User: Which sequence fits this backbone?
């Protein structure tokens, strides 16, 4: 085996051009695999970080209140009791915050936009504080005067407002009439791609006043956990516990709350029903960005891998043809078929393992470099990446995967020519010209 | 008994498109242990075919080939490989060394395939053998750093390193100049005499043939003369020498 390794290594060195070309291809594809993987991880990480701050907690207890069976509001009545129950049922929660849910128009002197209006407890909503990057004003303004709004850059631009200006919020309220309320722009935050297109944040009181809600109501209770992976367990426990404490629950549906309006409106019940969801349920709709990215990058990588595997296979055919006489000689002096196979496969294994390692190191290095350069991305991509700079997250798991998968595939490609070599009849191989 | 190679009514045909080319026709032959036998005959007469059969790299179309008592037609691919590794040694016309290995490693290779000897034992065997073939100083040279004669010595050492019963050589001197060829045959002969290894080699060269105990002459796939009597050494050699004295007609007859 040691000698076969030596033969393989020396033959690789002998055919420098061939080896260099093939290694370059394997390095490049592995590198690309790592880079695209890191970019995907980056998007996923941003999505989870930003999503679990802006849109959802790790587990959410929200729901709908229906006065008539035809119309539901995203309101939790009996908020104090519900909150107490949630606290008791999820003692491991690292943080519990409340938000109110609304939807309406933001009107300035120059323009009008439509977006989700989320009432937040700005002082205590640490997840949100951590993720929003305030360009102007301060989140504290939202709590300080109780009637402020946070807009994102593009919204503010469109409305042509800046911090301190007044805007009017108007929304359809429960009985079909429209209410309006004046608020002050308290903060302007940098855009967060997809996540900031249709949302803005206001003081908790704004939503209460806009919809004329009872003080003992809330929109949704956000439960944050130290380990987001536990969300499923906590959700199950909350559902069971809340039922046991005489709360009514909606059917368990892994979907975002704003997708449930229609369904709720179509159902024949009135009163309050709670809905317990995880961050995965709430973000299910946004995961398409990930899926799209994954599909595109897998296709690209797949095509490149196929090309490389064909390249390896071709090279192996040439190698086998060039060395047919040698195969005949070795078989004649008593080398078995399996060893012939191994001898040729080893060339591909050595080449692709080393090249894949190099590709992985290079890819990881470049990813780190790109990260540290904080490269700005164009607006179109910002929506997709949900960040204004390129973010790559190199995961050891994907590196390991690349180092294993690439050599496996190339070796698989080399298998056909190599096994042909092994199956050659010694006499045929010996008579081969050249 | 004492025959290490026995051919009984052996025929070999090669398919060539829709045609069948007969390369050996009903050949019967036996070669005793320790013989130094030359296979002679014009080009296309079947010398290589015969050596391939004895060398277990090919099987006969009909008839029986026994090598060291085993009917090779009944052996599996695996058993044939084993037989080649343990009982046979090969010397090729164009040396066929492994280009990327040096002299020492080329000679050591069959021992590694056998996997019987330790690192030390292998080294001792190879070093001694290289001295024997006059390559003691060239152990670390690659084949392309050696002359043709030196390469063939490496090949001889490789063929002998496993102490095979039979060494087969297909025109071992054809790619060498006369003087070098003669020294290679001398080397083979001396090993044959000191170690009792059976040598079967083919050649066109009458000067090489004259060293043989016996010359088996093929023509058109048949044995036309077989210096049957091992004691008729001198006679056989004499016959070949007679040919050599008239090189032109001899060559024309090929
Ligand atoms: N693989 C093959 N396919 C078809 N015919 C073959 C094959 N090998 C040999 N032959 C034919 O078999 C016959 C004997 O060939 P062989 O190579 O044994 O002759 P040879 O005596 O070794 O000749 P030379 O002195 O030229 O080496 C020839 O007619 C040759 O054309
Ligand atoms: Mg021949």
Assistant:
């Amino acid at each position: 085996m040691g000698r076969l390794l030596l033969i393989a290594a020396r033959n690789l060195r002998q055919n420098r051009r061939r080896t260099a070309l093939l290694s370059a291809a394997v390095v490049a594809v592995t590198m690309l695999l790592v880079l695209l993987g890191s970019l995907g991880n980056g998007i996923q990480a941003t999505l989870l970080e930003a999503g679990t701050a802006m849109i959802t907690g790790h587990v959410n207890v929200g729901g709908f209140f229906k006065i008539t069976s035809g119309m539901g509001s995203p309101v939790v009545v009996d908020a104090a009791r519900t909150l107490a129950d949630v606290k008791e049922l999820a003692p491991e929660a690292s943080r519990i915050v409340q938000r109110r849910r609304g939807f309406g128009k933001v009107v300035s002197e120059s323009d009008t936009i439509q977006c989700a209006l989320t009432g937040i407890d700005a002082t205590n909503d640490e997840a949100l504080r951590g993720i929003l990057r305030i360009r102007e004003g301060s989140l504290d303004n939202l709590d300080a005067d109780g009637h402020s709004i946070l807009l994102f850059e593009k919204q503010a631009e469109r409305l042509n407002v800046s911090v301190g200006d007044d805007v009017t919020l108007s929304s359809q309220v429960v009985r079909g009439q429209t209410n309006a309320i004046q608020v002050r722009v308290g903060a302007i935050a940098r855009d967060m791609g997809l996540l900031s297109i249709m949302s803005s944040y206001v003081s908790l009181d704004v939503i209460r006043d806009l919809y004329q809600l009872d003080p003992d109501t809330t929109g949704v209770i956000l439960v944050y956990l130290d380990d987001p992976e536990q969300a499923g367990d906590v959700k199950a426990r909350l559902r069971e516990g809340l039922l046991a404490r005489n709360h009514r629950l909606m059917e368990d549906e892994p979907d975002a709350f704003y997708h449930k309006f229609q369904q709720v409106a179509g159902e024949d019940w009135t009163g309050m029903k709670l809905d317990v969801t995880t961050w995965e349920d709430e973000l299910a709709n946004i995961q398409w960005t990930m899926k799209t990215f994954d599909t595109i990058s897998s296709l690209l990588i797949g095509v490149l891998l196929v090309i490389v595997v064909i390249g390896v296979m071709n090279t192996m055919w040439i190698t086998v043809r060039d060395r047919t006489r040698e195969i005949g000689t070795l078989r004649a002096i008593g080398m078995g078929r399996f060893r012939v196979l191994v001898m040729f496969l080893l060339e591909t294994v050595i080449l692709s393992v080393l090249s894949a390692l190099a590709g992985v190191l290079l890819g990881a290095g470049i990813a780190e470099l790109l990260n540290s350069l904080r490269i700005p991305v164009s607006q179109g991509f910002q929506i997709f990446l949900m960040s204004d700079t390129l973010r790559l997250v190199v995961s050891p798991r994907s590196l390991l995967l690349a180092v294993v998968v690439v050599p496996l595939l190339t070796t698989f490609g080399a298998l056909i020519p190599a096994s042909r070599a092994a199956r050659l009849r010694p006499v045929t191989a010996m008579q081969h010209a050249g | 008994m004492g025959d290490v190679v026995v051919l009984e009514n052996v025929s070999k045909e090669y398919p060539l498109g829709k045609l069948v080319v007969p390369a050996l026709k009903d050949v019967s032959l036996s070669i005793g242990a320790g013989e130094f036998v030359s296979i002679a005959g014009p080009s296309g007469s079947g010398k290589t075919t015969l050596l391939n059969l004895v060398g277990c790299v090919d099987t006969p179309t009909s008839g029986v080939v026994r090598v060291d008592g085993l009917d090779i037609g009944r052996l599996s691919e695996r058993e044939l490989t084993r037989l080649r590794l343990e009982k046979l040694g090969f010397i090729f016309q164009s040396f066929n060394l492994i280009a990327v290995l040096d002299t020492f490693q080329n000679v050591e290779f069959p021992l590694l395939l056998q996997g019987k000897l330790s690192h030390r034992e292998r080294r001792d065997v190879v070093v001694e053998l290289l001295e024997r073939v006059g390559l003691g100083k060239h152990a670390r040279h690659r084949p392309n750093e050696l002359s043709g004669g030196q390469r063939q010595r490496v090949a001889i050492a490789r063929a002998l390193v496993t102490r095979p019963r039979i060494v087969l050589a297909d025109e071992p001197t054809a790619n060498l100049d006369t003087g070098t060829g003669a020294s290679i045959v001398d080397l083979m002969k001396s090993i044959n005499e000191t170690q009792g290894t059976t040598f079967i080699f083919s050649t066109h060269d009458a000067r090489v043939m004259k060293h043989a105990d016996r010359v088996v002459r093929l023509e058109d796939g048949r044995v036309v003369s077989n210096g049957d009597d091992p004691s008729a050494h001198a006679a056989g050699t004499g016959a070949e020498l007679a040919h050599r004295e008239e090189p032109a007609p001899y060559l024309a007859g090929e």
Summary: DSSP finds 17 helices and 13 strands in chain A. Chain A touches chain B through 23 residues (CB under 8 Å). Residues 16-54 of chain A form the longest helix (39 residues).
